[in-house]
Amino acid sequence: MSRAGMWGLAALVAAFALSGCASKGRLAPVDDHSMGGARGSARVLPGAENAGKPGYYTVKPGDTLIRIGMDNGQSWRDIIRWNKLDNPNLIETGQVLRVAPPAPEVVVVRPATSPITASAATPAASAPAAPAALPPPSAAEEAISFQWPARGNLISGFDESKNKGLDIGGKAGDPVSAAADGRVVYAGAGLRGYGNLIILKHNNTYLTAYAHNQTLLVKEDQTIKRGQKIAEMGNSDADQVKLHFEIRRQGKPVDPAKYLQGN
């Protein structure tokens, strides 16, 4: 190789070395999720100003709107509507959601005392509709009558920490019936651990849940009568054919055996 060629090769090697040093020292871009794009400031999540207030819920890791609705005694569709969620699949840990219906709007009207004051009167003011905590159940709501949702042997009883309902055995295809009159607020397989699930809302106090079904026979928003067949028993997301049945009082699981009457 000529002397000129050797000098050219050396220059090329030096250029590659300098390029490598520069790339090693470059920081990767940082996603800025802060409000207004200000570097270093914490991002404020939707509804954060309502954290801890009655009628609101702070989203935890692993939550879904279906789970939040069931745990708060509400329809997941109502939660979407109350919070004006554009995409119900995008909720964030730490986000605060309204989980109780808005209080009725209160309008305050100041009466006019004369034509002069009437023309200059302050316009009627309306108080903002804030969500209210769930009221205590009425006597009529507490008096609701539940029947057994399926015929079969009791496999597992209620345990507040381990089993939030009753597990009733049976054969695939056995009928699953509504425990009381109500409205379907969920029918699908979107809640992990429950398989094909139906949730009925009976009033402002009680929900019932019917899990692990083989077939669902009702749709959301459908009105259901006590004893109506709503599903067929199965083993979806379960280790055997069974019906997992829950009663929720204002979102909290209670022992169904204390509420159920004969078919």
Verbal overview:
This protein is an alpha+beta fold. Among the domains are: 48-98, Membrane-bound Lytic Murein Transglycosylase D, Chain A (Roll); 140-261, Glucose Permease (Domain IIA) (Distorted Sandwich). It contains five helices and 16 strands. It has helices at 3-24, 65-71, 76-83, 115-119, 139-142, and strands spanning 56-58, 96-98, 107-108, 125-126, 146-147, 154-156, 166-169, 175-177, 182-188, 196-201, 206-216, 223-224, 229-233, 242-249, 252-254, 260-261. The strands form four sheets. Strands 6, 7, 8, 9, 10, 11, 12, 13, 14 and 15 form a ten-stranded antiparallel beta sheet that branches. The chain has a two-stranded antiparallel ribbon with strand order 1-2. The protein has a two-stranded antiparallel ribbon with strand order 3-4. Strand 14 and strand 15 (252-254) form a beta hairpin. Helix 2 packs across helix 3. The longest helix has 22 residues, at 3-24. It starts with a helix and ends with a strand.
Brief characterization of the structure:
The protein is an alpha+beta fold.
Radius of gyration: 29 Å
What CATH calls the topology of the domain at 140-261 is Glucose Permease (Domain IIA)
* Main structural class: alpha+beta
Oligomer: single chain
CATH class of the domain at 140-261: Mainly Beta
Level-2 CATH architecture of the domain at 140-261: Distorted Sandwich
Q: What's the CATH H-level superfamily name of the domain at 140-261?
A: Glucose Permease (Domain IIA)
- Structure summary, number of beta strands: 16
